[in-house]
Design brief:
The chain is of the alpha/beta class. It contains 20 helices and 8 strands. Helix 8 links the parallel strand 3 and strand 4. The N and C termini lie far apart (65 Å).
Amino acid sequence: MIARRLQYELMSHALGPAMVAYQTWSDERRRSRRAAKESPFGPQLECTRKLKELMTRHYLAGRYADGAVPVAWVTSGFPVEFLRALGFFCVYPENHAALCSVQRKSAELSEVVEKEGYSRDLCSYARSDIGCALSLKTPVGRLPKPDLLACCTNICQTVLYWYRALAEHFRVPLVLLDTPFVYGSASPHQIQYVRDQLGEAVETAERISGRKLSGERMQRTAELALEGANLWGQCLEQGRHSPSPWTGFDGFFHMAPIVSLRGSEETNDYYRLLLAELQDRVSRGISGIREERHRLVWDNLPVWFKVRDISTSLAQRGFNLVCTSYTNAWAEAGKRMDPQDPLGSAARVYTHIILNQDLNNRMEVLRRLATEYRADGAILHSDRSCKPYSMGQVDLREKLASELGIKVLLLEADHADPRAYSSEQGETRLAAFMESFA
């Protein structure tokens, strides 16, 4: 145990950061040599290097976390603040699955679980991570074995069955937080229902970690989570400027810390750097793409394995994706956090996640984003793997077009599995959409 803790601390705070910094420097040198002279994008954000270092350090430390500190695997919509206050190292399987897709590993991992009888119609994130658990294959080297699994139904019901499968495989406790679906605003008794479950979850986590939750540590973690959400929101708001200093595709990658490291000092330090760089780009008129002629809003998760291709096609024609409902969700929900009542406010925060609210709320979010960011078009990603996020998009498309007078494309794809996407069809529909602006 002591030796494992020493390994973990060494990789987290000393040797690991040095290794990551060298690898990042080496990668940047290779990239600069092969960079295309006529790229449709503006200069790369300097913070991208820091982002890579931060997330690589996180996964590198994770290789040595189990046996050194308590480890929890959590869904993206779970109230992670009390776990951080108890000293858990937290792994987000969804973030890991997105990384697998970017690295073109999702299909291989999905085939592992499909051979075990899992349906190809299941969420590709779930298939990727269960496939990783069964095969021990991952682009990050190794994921730590969990001591606790924690999921919340505010994003979908799939996570419950996904985490049940992981709990059976790892033979560890599963904590479930059930959030009632919200029409309008949650009622007091709905919030109390979630708050009561949070109390039970804390007791389970205390037992596993061997620690009691400190009120001071919990308050400090809630303060950091609130500050992080506000900083992330300010970063996103820089896209309201014309031209936008970055793209929504950049945002998909730079949201990683607010998802995976929410409630930590390192996350907030990173977003201060990012915000300062974006503000500097605004002052100097530096754009995320070389020639911004049209501004778009995106709904749903990205098509991770096609981000580069789709963003390049758009940028070449002067289309800049300036905001997305997905990245915006991490800023809006977190603003409800109250450090003076961390668990009570957490019940409100995590009950009002965008996917746990009705379609009228989704429409209001998209309407507001399109207006505030002065978008003249929208792409709604009809995501085969995320049915809750894709439900109702035909109605959303018609309302956005009729109420705001903007052009809207419904793009059928999948957020992680390339086998569920037709490149030819997607490129044809994207090209036709852009031509309609002529």
